[in-house]
TrEMBL record, chain A:
Belongs to the MreC family. GO terms for cellular component: plasma membrane. GO terms for biological process: regulation of cell shape. Residues 97-240 form the Rod shape-determining protein MreC beta-barrel core domain. It comes from Leptothoe spongobia TAU-MAC 1115. Keywords: Cell shape, Coiled coil. Residues 62-89 form a coiled coil. Gene3D superfamilies: Rod shape-determining protein MreC, domain 1, Rod shape-determining protein MreC, domain 2. This is Cell shape-determining protein MreC.
UniProtKB/TrEMBL annotation, chain B:
Its main location: membrane. GO terms for biological process: regulation of cell shape. It comes from Leptothoe spongobia TAU-MAC 1115. Pfam families: MreD. NCBIfam families: shape_MreD. Keywords: Cell membrane, Cell shape, Membrane, Transmembrane, Transmembrane helix. It is found in: Cell membrane. The lineage of its organism: Bacteria, Bacillati, Cyanobacteriota, Cyanophyceae, Nodosilineales. This is Rod shape-determining protein MreD. One of its GO terms (cellular component) is plasma membrane. The chain crosses the membrane at residues 20-38, 50-77, 112-139. Belongs to the MreD family.
Length: 263, 190
């Protein structure tokens, strides 16, 4: 008892501070680092693509006039395509990529639109070319997108030509591998892969990529390496589509039957 | 300390406050640097582990217990920035304790090259802790998200080596200002 009392007298403050600091860090972790990402968003705002547009315009008239004009025309065209695309897709949000994963084991990106722009957890993100990932967490003006190359990201997909079903999994080394459900799937390199109705976290029919190579003798299931159609390493903009994940385990049976029936 | 000594000397209370500001400020800078990828910072798609550098420098100046606490706290914060599993708290805690233990044996003198070497080693230790957690999960839990052990450890090689090289190269940028402050602060305190 005395020893305990003496320990308490000596270390009470340190123990208190340690508990407090760990508690705060825990709270920060539970909130998915929202405070930190908010500060990050404010600090990096001068670096975001799109905001320097005005400065680029000014320089364009002074320096390298022609090249700048060509660059602007290209950008204009790109953005115009984005806008047309956005119009055709209904209510979507276009967001700039402002950060990458905060460590080397996760495949994530940070974008500059958050819950105040209507982004919610579980929304789907696409880039030029196809699927990019889904929104993992949101803070008021940023959101974290888990890329489909992350090992914890899995989704149901199908081969567009033959309707062979499978699961696409990210990999710790950044490649994406598709595992087939059948033992002898009808596939060949170059086949287009889209999300299937088995996928509960993504809407069906979104393009993912093409089959690059395959190993049909692999046990327990045949595997194929997928070449993603979206260039994840050089992404600057993503389009965020509102989507409610189907939390119901029994996915709509009608669509699944349809998938299997179509040869 | 009185005011008559001039404005160059701060009172103990002011020093403590300044220390808290510096500690929190430098942590925040490291946290904000983590998602950034400016040119020259990436090697094979891997970036320096800023929080690990901070924990190592902190543990050089403080005892084992404090090193462990700093590791846990920063690890939890990094978890917040990424995802809950595998947890960084464990790997940074081990890093903090090991570094503080090395310092207790007076292995590290005031030599930035040696500190960079420690960071190099600790980055490998940290990456190994992460890979071990993944491997245990892969072996012990039935539905593991990882394809196979071979893949985890091949990635471990790439991540550990690149992040160790980059982290140790960036160590002086954090070490000089923090060491300069803590050396003076702790000397005045004892």
């Amino acid at each position: 008892m005395f020893a305990l009392r003496r320990w308490w007298d000596r270390y009470a403050t340190r123990a208190g501070i340690a508990t407090l600091v760990i508690g705060l860090a825990w709270a920060m972790r539970q909130s998915q680092g929202a405070v930190i990402y908010e500060i990050y968003q404010v600090l990096t705002s001068p670096l975001h693509p799109g905001l320097t547009q005005a400065e680029r315009l000014e320089n364009a008239y002074i320096l390298e006039l022609q090249q700048r004009v060509i660059e602007l025309e290209n950008q204009n065209q790109g953005l115009r395509e984005n806008i047309n695309y956005a119009d055709s897709q209904g209510k979507v949000t276009i967001a700039a990529v402002i950060g990458r994963s905060a460590d080397n084991w996760w495949q994530q990106i940070t974008v500059n639109k958050g819950s105040s722009d209507g982004v919610t957890e579980g929304d789907m993100a696409t880039g030029p070319g196809g699927l990019v990932g889904r929104v993992l967490s949101v803070s008021p003006s940023t959101s974290q997108i888990l890329l489909i190359t992350d090992p914890t990201s899995q989704m149901g997909v199908k081969v567009s030509r033959s309707r062979a079903l499978g699961v696409v999994r990210g990999n710790v080394d950044g490649r994406v591998v598709m595992q087939f459900f059948e033992t002898t799937p009808d596939v060949k390199p170059g086949d287009v892969i889209v999300t299937s109705s088995y996928s509960r976290l993504f809407p069906q029919g979104v393009p993912v990529g093409r089959i690059e190579s395959m190993d049909l003798k692999k046990s327990p299931a045949p595997e194929a390496v997928i070449q993603l159609s979206s260039p994840l390493n050089i992404l600057e903009w993503v389009t965020i589509h509102p989507f409610e994940a189907k939390t119901d385990v029994n996915a709509p049976p009608a669509e699944i039957v349809d998938d299997k029936a179509t040869p | 300390m009185t005011v008559s000594k001039g404005k160059a000397t701060l009172t103990d209370f002011q020093k403590t406050c300044l220390n808290i500001v510096i500690v929190i400020g430098s942590c925040l800078i490291c946290l904000l640097l983590s998602p950034m990828r400016f040119p020259g910072i990436e090697l094979l798609g891997v970036s320096p582990n800023w929080l690990l550098i901070w924990v190592v420098i902190w543990s050089i100046h403080y005892p084992i217990f404090d090193g462990a606490i700093a590791g846990i706290v920063l690890g939890l914060l990094q978890d917040g920035l990424t995802g809950p599993f595998p947890t960084h708290a464990l790997s940074l805690m081990v890093v903090g304790m090991l570094t503080a233990r090395l310092q207790r044996q007076r292995i590290i003198q005031e030599n930035v090259v040696l500190v960079a070497f420690i960071v190099f080693g600790m980055a490998v230790v940290g990456a190994t802790m992460m890979a071990l957690q993944m491997s245990f999960r892969h072996i012990l839990w039935p539905n593991s998200p990882y394809l196979n052990l071979w893949q985890i450890w091949r990635t471990h090689q790439r991540v550990a080596l690149s992040s160790a090289i980059l982290s140790s190269l960036w160590t002086p940028a954090l070490y000089y200002p923090l060491h300069h402050w803590w050396k003076g602060y702790l000397k005045a305190k004892n």
